[in-house]
Specification:
Length: about 325
């Protein structure tokens, strides 16, 4: 997921120890040396902790393996800080990253234009970190938005963020601390900030949903591809004026690896237009269903990613 797991700078020393261990260890059963066609090389593909990131990394793995690469998998490697440390220390070769996370790392504000944001992170990451962004998935946006329970939406007549504006002084909002600046940024198009609400409770992301369920708040900040939203009886409020900054995924690859294996771009770029926000949510729901049927997370992600790529004619 994109803006998730930011602000973990205190883990630097621990991350370094972790990366040294990572370099010496295998994948604990998550490596599959099978491949089709002639052997092209060996790559290490990793993901962050969330299911969306694991699905994207699994798709990269399957597509690369189909073309003859041997893949060493590192699923759910860690949060944004740990996985970025891993790629900059050459412990992994590529992973799915989000433009919003990239901008935060560079301390650059969003332009609210997906292509401009992408170009900024692409240019600066290549210069500063020797990392290359491949094609972005512009139809999949994993940024922040507002959510509420279906009952609240019906009672208050809420479909979009614009519907909140005339009622905002009567509503209580919950938000994780790192989302507060983005809520205040809504002033740009909606003319509201955190101060516009009746009250704002800064609490953990998951607790925001509980607060809405218990009637202690009416609105909570959520990720726009969080599959728990529809599964928990909540709905996304449409960001009809694009008030929250966009955050789109793309494969992030070590530039020297891409120079050695330029086919990586040809193999992975066709995936970008096949994925959308709604598709991501549905795939995550399918993973949950397979887990409920007894599959491990690794197995569930593999099955769902494989089925999707086959349906799309990519596998």
């Amino acid at each position: 997921m994109s803006l998730r797991s930011l602000n973990f700078r205190l883990v630097g020393a621990l991350a370094l120890v972790f990366l040294l261990l990572l370099s010496a260890c295998g994948t604990s059963g998550n490596s599959d040396s099978s491949y089709s066609g002639s052997f092209k090389g060996q790559l290490t593909v990793a993901s962050k902790l969330d299911i969306e990131s694991q699905l994207l990394a699994k798709m990269y793995t399957l597509l690369l393996r189909k073309e003859g690469f041997q893949i060493n998998e590192k699923p759910a490697l860690g949060n944004s800080t740990i996985i970025f440390q891993a790629i900059t220390y050459d412990s992994i070769d590529l992973y799915p990253e989000f433009t919003g996370t990239g901008l935060n790392r560079l301390h650059i504000p969003s332009t609210y234009n997906p292509l401009k944001d992408y170009q900024m992170v692409k240019d600066d990451f290549k210069k500063k970190y020797k990392l290359t962004w491949l094609d972005p998935t512009l139809l999949l946006n994993d940024g922040y938005t507002f959510c509420t329970m279906k009952e609240n939406a019906q009672m208050l007549g809420l479909v979009s963020i614009s519907d909140i504006v005339p009622k905002v002084s009567q509503l209580t909002l919950t938000t994780p601390s790192d989302a507060t600046p983005f809520v205040d940024g809504l002033k740009r198009v909606y003319k509201i900030t955190t101060r516009s609400f009746k009250s704002v409770k800064t609490i953990d992301y998951a607790l925001g949903f509980e607060a809405v369920k218990n009637g202690k708040a009416q609105i909570t900040v959520c990720y726009s591809t969080d599959a728990n939203v529809p599964q928990s009886g909540f709905i996304f409020l449409k960001d009809d004026k694009n008030g929250f900054p966009p955050s789109h995924p793309a494969p992030l690859v070590r530039s020297n690896i891409l120079q050695r294996y330029p086919d990586i771009s040809r193999i992975l770029n066709p995936l970008a237009p096949r994925l959308t926000t709604d598709v991501s949510i549905q795939l995550q729901i399918q993973v949950t269903q397979k887990k409920n049927e007894g599959a491990s997370v690794f197995r569930a992600v593999t099955l769902v990613a494989t089925d999707f790529l086959k349906r799309e004619g990519l596998l």
